Task: structure prediction
Amino acid sequence: MNLTLFRLLLSALVLLAYPPGWAADTKPNVLFIAVDDLNDWIGCLGGHPQTITPNFDRLAASGVLFTNAHTAAAACNPSRTAVMTGISPHRSGLYANEQKMRQILPDEPILPQHFRNHGYHASGSGKMLHYFIDAQSWDEYFPDKATENPLPETYYPEDRPVSLPRGGAWQYVETDWGAMPVSDEEFGGDWAVSQWVGAQLAKKHEKPFFLACGIYRPHEPWFVPEKYFEPFPLEEVQLPPGYKEGDLDDLPAAGVKAGRNRYFPHILEHDQWKQGVQGYLASIHFADAMLGRVLDALESGPNAGNTIVVLWSDHGWHLGEKEHWQKFTAWRACTRVPLMIRVPRGTAPGLREGTVAGSVCDRPVDLLSLVPTLTELSGIPAKENADGQSLVPLLRDPEAEWDHVALTYLHHTGSFGMSTDDWRYIRYHDGGEELYHIRKDPYEWDNLAAEPEHAAKLQELRERAPEKFAPKVSPDPEQLPRLSFHPAGKGKDPPASAPDGAGFSIALFNRSGDAVEVFWISPSGVEKSYGILAPGKMREQPTRPGAVWHFRKPDGGDPLGHVVVGDRRSRVLIPKR
Result:
């Protein structure tokens, strides 16, 4: 019997088992699990042969595993905003981490609020949005939603870095790894999240619930209890299977620039490649254990039979593939993410027969589909401005016809990656293109965009690309992260600049009450004036990571203090003395 016929028979049996009025009176619970920075290095996706993920694999085997799922954006903030609002980056104009969701979408209801609006109790724990909770959208949260800090206290070593020396101000301070001499409970962080979520799953609820669980690892730093490092002896660690020397040779200029960042050569210089892979594998192993605690709590509690489970990751991660470390690219190492959905039989008005355990779907899907999928499954009204396609047809039949592509947007407006069943197409904002036949070339080693025999396929995919892109909305300077201001004083002279990295601007706010003269300190320690900043005024100051800016009263007046520029766009508040 083929799968489609089997499902039709099963659906008929379920309809007989549940009376016509049942769905109208019953709403399923939703357990919504996000994992941060997880690529396809889990057993059921086969991304790395040494990974240990029995709980990811267990959840996948109990429902539908999507093997060709892609993030809507290649960075945390735009990806999570797209998931939680259902609005594509190319419509919202939110493409990058430095932008602010509530500046761009001030009144947009996110997924928990939409469920609250239709009779649900919404609660959550851990990172769901980009380092804020959005307290107005939840009934309760851990940590307390009033703090707007979604991360519980986590163990970090006092002496850092542990393994990878910091190469300069350009380097993200959390790019580091190491085994921590603590228990899971002493580590806190994701253990505390799993403990809180597990407690919610262990009790009965008066209303149907939307419960979000944000597992932070394997986000950097790759610090987890030492027992999770033990299965990966350093001498046995295998390097990423997708790495190929010279892999950038056939790429357009924008592709080379996207791939070749400073992290990978820095890691090689310090002989830390295997250690980094070890740290990532250990962090995935830890995340898997925390997922196991959540699944155990669900399955042993009173809500197992009527709770939909969805698990996704915001984007993947490069560990040397394309000479790249981190995210922010349109290649599959970054765009392809775990996605698995389990719907118990007789639970969801939109899929009464439930999902068939062990189903695998190879169709191209993206995370914009989560909003329309969950509203349809739960039998609540659709979110009218959601952009994605509901996955319910594929949950019903993983081999169903599916005339859609999966799109991932980059931080430059007009840059994106596209996935079909067999092909990958990448276009950059400057017109550069890449084309890969994924069935034959899963690691995207051979760019076919310039090959005449593939011109028709290239044109076909071009025609499926978006025609319009919303302009990128500049961040409000008032909402940028704040640089530490070092007040002047005896023995507190500003250091020399050590500029290192690509340029950007910082926002200078003069809150001193008086005019202030702005100086750049050269690498030789010499002050160079950049003019006067009037009291109460703000200006954008071009700069680079590692630059030092010094502030004093005009005309050789008393020094006020200095800042050292970090690795990203920030704001400087010049305070009153």
